DNA sequence: TCATTAACATTACATATGTAATGTAACATA
DNA sequence: TATGTTACATTACATATGTAATGTTAATGA
């Protein structure tokens, strides 16, 4: 007896992502989605209790994409790959990046997860295995701060000419500086 | 014959700053200001053509405060002081920091000015005078990226326990790492 | 074929905001 | 003291947004 659905949940989320990408998270509204779908605002409320709920779902999707980016094999160094993916994500998905890290979505949980991921990656780099826990922690923190600063610069358009290989070089050079320092301080302690 | 003014331009800007500090730049509206002043929205339009114009004036004020912060003598190193002031500003004036660097105010002009300032400061550090222009430039960029990353972390609340002295230490340590690397690479070239 | 019902459209109400139009009262001067 | 000017208040209109209430229609089972 029921009528056949025209729109589904995924379509609504996809339209939302398109709006966020083009106009920013702040512009995401039920009416914008309706315009995008060429429909009324009703379908949105068919699948989501509120705009708040939809926005959470959209945020989740951008996070999925971020995780995709930071797990790609840009180089042979998985530790570096995370940072490179992060910066390239900032370049290619400005508005998603802003939504995740610079809006009021309390990104600290997300950053925690990223750091945890980095913590496992860093162990895979052979030359760093000899470092103590606190030494590795310090190195991690420095690398993360630099990566984040770099990415925000890319995001805000201050760092231009940012081809993949240039991003890789910039981050890898900075990483080597931190690593060399960490190894040096490790040797000195002994 | 005219009536005595009750509110002046400065009061309106001050109220605006209070609102931005407490509720964020997005919440700044004529009616909010009126609430703050216990008045109507009319006085705002007495001194400003539009809210847009007022917002520009408010942004200018936050920039003035930022310049104040980055010119304070936290340490004897003027180069370091800029970064420290920047991070402390992010800690003490979250919403101003967001408005300036993370909102859509096209901060690149501001960053340019900051970099120019840093460029003059760096020359005052004796041990760095020997570096070539491009070497100094590279060092500057690295320092700036790190400082910005650090400040955004402070802003987003990820870096906690951020007393002045801890911020100074963190940035000075990172600075030393970059400086040592720059000097080392300079020596190698010879 | 037709009644039912889910999916969507339409309309409407509430709130927030910018800002123009209009009203009002205080104050300096004549 | 009367008056004109101006600073502010009030009111109103336009737009944007969330979302509830209500209307409409397409698909299916009887």
Biggest interface, chains and residues, is: A-B, 27 and 27 residues
Let me know the average pLDDT of chain A: 93
Strand portion of chain A, in percent? Answer: under 5%
Helix content of chain A: over 70%
Number of helices of chain A: 9
Structural class of chain A: mainly alpha
**Sheet with the most strands of chain A?**
none
Indicate the low-confidence ranges of chain A by residue numbers: none
Radius of gyration of chain A: 20 Å
Q: For the terminal residues of chain A, how far apart are their CA atoms?
A: 79 Å
Outline the structure in words.
Two copies of one chain form a homodimer. Chain A is built from nine helices and no strands. Chain A is an all-alpha fold. Chain A has two domains: 9-48, Arc Repressor Mutant, subunit A; 59-189. In chain A, helix 1 (9-23) packs across helix 4 and helix 4 (51-70) crosses helix 6. Chain A starts with 8 loop residues before the first helix and ends with a helix. The interface between A and B is medium-sized, with 27 and 27 residues. Chain A binds a DNA duplex (30 and 30 nucleotides) through helix 3.
Give the key terms.
homodimer; 190 residues; mainly alpha; Arc Repressor Mutant, subunit A; DNA-binding
Short description:
Two copies of one chain form a homodimer. The first copy, chain A, has 190 residues and is mainly α. In chain A, 73% of the residues lie in helices and 0% in strands.
